[in-house]
Amino acid sequence: MASGDEELYQLILERFKRGMLESKHYERLRTFLKDDNYSPRPDDSEIWNTMGNTFFKERDLIHALQCYENAIEIDHNNEDARYNRELTLNVLNR
Q1: For residues 20 and 13, what is the distance between their CA atoms, to the nearest angstrom?
Q2: Which residues of the chain have pLDDT under 70?
Q3: Are 18 and 37 in contact (CB under 8 A)?
Q4: Which of 10, 35, 60, 85 lies in disulfide reach of 55, CB 3.0 to 4.6 Å?
Q5: Domain extents for the chain?
Q6: In the chain, count of helices (H) and strands (E)?
């Protein structure tokens, strides 16, 4: 994973605890985030994509992009994450 993942993980954990993440993957996220000391490496592309969507909605585009890239790293065929990454890059004018 890229540098800064520990910060990213802490931001995700905060949002999870406040109930801010999409409910579609809530059970999968709950399993992943059950331990505060867990390493930020879920091997679930959909979880990363969902977390990216949360950051995107908050206009936190850098963290959203990081999540989408993690999703694509795990599953190169995740079309949703690829689309979301491109959308985020466009908004960032990259």
Answers
A1: 10
A2: 1-6, 20-42
A3: no
A4: 60
A5: 5-91
A6: 5, 0
